Amino acid sequence: MADTDAGTTEPGVLDRFETDGYAIFRGVLDQELIAEAAGHVDWLRRRHPGLRTEQLGHTLMRDDPFWVRLVADPRLLDIAELFVGPDIDLFASHYISKPPYTGQAVLWHQDAAFWPLEPMRVVTLWLAVDRSTPENGCVRLVPGSHRGGIAAMRANTDVDNVLGEEIAVEVDESAAVDMVLAPGDVEVHHPAIVHGSAANTSSHRRCGLTIRYIPSSTRITAPERPYPSAFHLRGEPGVNLCNPVPVYDPARHYPFSGAGRR
């Protein structure tokens, strides 16, 4: 496993990522920003009471200045650049906030089975907003599973779960490893790695923000243009029509440090 401190790039991290399909970066974001992210989740929950908190997804991003500020943080982009290069677009982002006792599982899957990207050059940064442990349903990954093909998916509504689907092949769960993270840590994974997470049956919320970065040369092939979460974040623009950065309005938006500055 590649496991590095914030601000460092341990020699060999990219080689081990190629082998294992994931890496962990510790202490990437400061606790003040993480506290703002936790408040943002609560604000979104109040603003969208009809949505489960596991479903605070990318379609809400287009008019959310804090969300765009968070995914554009230079510390996160520096990590993304290691994997996708200097010209970076956001493809999608999604809070998966599992409430105590009732938080849903995410069944085994590969992200690449779902995404309208061509080519499938993308990396996920999973930012821990809360402490993430086996007890509250942390992410579990099968190291090296990204080196196989992309398997089919099948419906599964027998178990209460976020996706309503699971990978249609047998998964060796004994090979899986738990992504135990502190708030501000970042786990990075390959789009083809097999991963999932258990339900949260503990008394502690488990919230993480998934951030899907692509090189600006990777095309978002979904028919909606611009895609609701397509933003150009660093370097040279490329093939995607991207949304403008939303302008902060205190009457409509979540208040945060630096809001309104351009």
What do you see in this structure?
- The structure is a single chain.
- This protein is of the alpha+beta class.
- The chain has one domain: Sandwich (Jelly Rolls), CATH 2.60.120.620.
- It contains four helices and 15 strands.
- A seven-stranded mixed beta sheet has the order 1-2-11-6-13-3-15. It has a four-stranded antiparallel beta sheet with strand order 4-12-7-10, with no helix packed on it. Strands 5-14 form a two-stranded antiparallel ribbon.
- Helix 1 (13-20) links the parallel strand 1 (2-5) and strand 2.
- The longest helix is centred in the N-terminal third of the chain and has 17 residues, at 31-47.
- It is globular.
- The relative contact order is 0.24.
- The model has no long low-confidence stretch (mean pLDDT 95).
- This is Phytanoyl-CoA dioxygenase (PhyH).
Keywords, please?
about 260 residues, Jelly Rolls, seven-stranded mixed β-sheet, four-stranded antiparallel β-sheet, 15 strands, globular, Phytanoyl-CoA dioxygenase (PhyH)
Question: So what's the overall shape?
Answer: globular
- The third-level CATH topology is Jelly Rolls
Strand content: 25-35%
Report strand order across the widest sheet.
1-2-11-6-13-3-15
Strand and helix order: EHEHHHEEEEEEEEEEEEE
Q: How many structural domains in the coordinates?
A: 1
Q: What is the rounded distance between the termini?
A: 39 Å
Taking pLDDT < 50 over at least 5 consecutive residues as the criterion, the unreliable ranges are: none
CATH architecture: Sandwich
Based on secondary structure, the structural category is alpha+beta
What is the top-level CATH class? Answer: Mainly Beta
Number of β-strand runs:
15
Percent of residues in helical segments? 10-25%
Oligomer: single chain
Keywords: Dioxygenase, Oxidoreductase
GO molecular function: 2-oxoglutarate-dependent dioxygenase activity; iron ion binding
Organism: Actinacidiphila alni
InterPro entries: Phytyl_CoA_dOase-like
